[in-house]
Amino acid sequence: MRNLTLFDRPPTPASPLRDAALVALLLAAATGLGLLLDRYASLTSLALLYVLAVACAAYSVRLPGSIACAVGAVALLNFLFVPPRFTFHVDAQENVVALLTLLTVAIVISHLVTAMRREADVARLHERRASQLEQLATELAGASIPAEIQLLGKRFLSRAFPGPCLVGLVGPDGALALPAETPAGIPEGMLAAIRDRRVLGAGTERWPDLDAWFLPLGSDDYVGGAACVRHAPSHDEGSLQHAQAICALVGQALGRLKLRGSIRAAEKESEWHRAQNTFLAAISHDFRTPLAAIVAATSSLQTQEDRLAPAERQRLMGIVLDEAGYLSNLTENTLQLARLENAGELHLDWQSIEEVVGSVLARVRQRDPRRRIQSRVPSGLPLIKADPVLLAQLLENLLDNALKYSTAAIELVVDAGGAFMEVSVHDRGNGVGAIEDQALLRPYRRGDQSGPRGAGLGLAVCRAIADAHGGQLVARTRDGGGSSFVLRLPVEADQPAAQAA
């Protein structure tokens, strides 16, 4: 890859002394070789030596030097080799024609070679510009924030033009963000370029007397900012087109980021609507059965209370309590899932996993008269950043799920090592069934459809809580039967001073 810091910079002008020295050296070489071959070569052959010198000069020096070399070659040939020698007088008319022809040929060669050099320089310049645009497009493809795109635009403009160059982006409030030390008049020119969506300044139709270009970053559809190239060449159309190409690439990158943000916003909106639809589906299906049971039981209690036996009244009241508790849990999980998916970042604080696990076990064991839950929580565990209420809800859902689907012992194991802490709940139930492990953690997905009823929300809430903490919840089938749910939470390397002490 060529050094891009030299892109489009004008080459250092050749020294007139260097050109004169090179012309003198070429003429001296041709003259010396001609004197050596004078006895053996004709005048035409000697003239070709000077033609060769003129061709070398035309390739090596600027046009004035090559023309001077052509005139000098004819003069030396006439003075040294054309009779009468050592004078500028020419006796034969044919020699006069030969000298004039040589001069014409030498000048034509100088012009042709100079034109070829100019075209070669233009071709190399176009190649360098194409390489620069290719590299800019490649680096812009990896840019993920507007500030990075702004920096790339300024860097490549500064490589292409002596500048100084400035790039400003339009902020969310519609204002152009520029450094405080920006010279007066520059912000106005950049805002005008954004407003008109066209190039302004030197060599353009508007403000042509300025020595700067003001270029919009974008096209007619979207302009994300503007660039200023100061001390710009006023009559260099190629350079202006190159600056426009750079700004167009930068504008496209800014437009791509804006489009990506719009797509994300649309996806969030779509997710929200899907959550609403899911919630409505839950109301229409999972809520209907318990509500019907509650209505039927309360209706019987209201209309037939005097004719019902005490045992039957107790049975109906139990139905009402059970179905109401199921509805309450279903509603809480649904609302919690919706809140977690749309709440953004949580407010996390340092928490002790031993205290969280202890409070959860105290509540869950009231619903576990057989004391099936066995816990292994080592001492001296590091603190974690967490929301204690949500983390407790996660663990409580996992333990309630294990109690519901397993009749054997249940293990709750906490282990810390490296950058993560793992909290595992192991049971010996029926496993995850036909649904794949991670699919079980999606809303309204259940593993064992023949087991206790449920809406399939508890584990989805658990996964959402884990994600909100920057962790991960994984469901696995255990060897020998049963399931394992493993919660991995990040552990901060910098622990509080009290913990470290």
Automatic annotation (TrEMBL):
<dbReference type="Pfam" id="PF00512">
    <property type="entry name" value="HisKA"/>
</dbReference>
<feature type="transmembrane region" description="Helical">
    <location>
        <begin position="20"/>
        <end position="37"/>
    </location>
</feature>
<feature type="domain" description="Histidine kinase">
    <location>
        <begin position="282"/>
        <end position="493"/>
    </location>
</feature>
<keyword id="KW-0067">ATP-binding</keyword>
<dbReference type="InterPro" id="IPR052023">
    <property type="entry name" value="Histidine_kinase_KdpD"/>
</dbReference>
<dbReference type="InterPro" id="IPR003594">
    <property type="entry name" value="HATPase_dom"/>
</dbReference>
<keyword id="KW-0597">Phosphoprotein</keyword>
<dbReference type="InterPro" id="IPR005467">
    <property type="entry name" value="His_kinase_dom"/>
</dbReference>
<dbReference type="InterPro" id="IPR036890">
    <property type="entry name" value="HATPase_C_sf"/>
</dbReference>
<keyword id="KW-0812">Transmembrane</keyword>
<dbReference type="GO" id="GO:0000155">
    <property type="term" value="F:phosphorelay sensor kinase activity"/>
</dbReference>
<dbReference type="InterPro" id="IPR036097">
    <property type="entry name" value="HisK_dim/P_sf"/>
</dbReference>
<dbReference type="Pfam" id="PF02518">
    <property type="entry name" value="HATPase_c"/>
</dbReference>
<dbReference type="InterPro" id="IPR038318">
    <property type="entry name" value="KdpD_sf"/>
</dbReference>
<dbReference type="GO" id="GO:0005524">
    <property type="term" value="F:ATP binding"/>
</dbReference>
<keyword id="KW-0418">Kinase</keyword>
<dbReference type="Pfam" id="PF13493">
    <property type="entry name" value="DUF4118"/>
</dbReference>
<keyword id="KW-1133">Transmembrane helix</keyword>
<keyword id="KW-0902">Two-component regulatory system</keyword>
<keyword id="KW-0472">Membrane</keyword>
<keyword id="KW-0547">Nucleotide-binding</keyword>
<protein>
    <recommendedName>
        <fullName>histidine kinase</fullName>
        <ecNumber>2.7.13.3</ecNumber>
    </recommendedName>
</protein>
<feature type="transmembrane region" description="Helical">
    <location>
        <begin position="49"/>
        <end position="76"/>
    </location>
</feature>
<feature type="transmembrane region" description="Helical">
    <location>
        <begin position="96"/>
        <end position="116"/>
    </location>
</feature>
<keyword id="KW-0808">Transferase</keyword>
<dbReference type="InterPro" id="IPR004358">
    <property type="entry name" value="Sig_transdc_His_kin-like_C"/>
</dbReference>
<dbReference type="InterPro" id="IPR029016">
    <property type="entry name" value="GAF-like_dom_sf"/>
</dbReference>
<dbReference type="InterPro" id="IPR003661">
    <property type="entry name" value="HisK_dim/P_dom"/>
</dbReference>
<dbReference type="GO" id="GO:0005886">
    <property type="term" value="C:plasma membrane"/>
</dbReference>
<dbReference type="InterPro" id="IPR025201">
    <property type="entry name" value="KdpD_TM"/>
</dbReference>
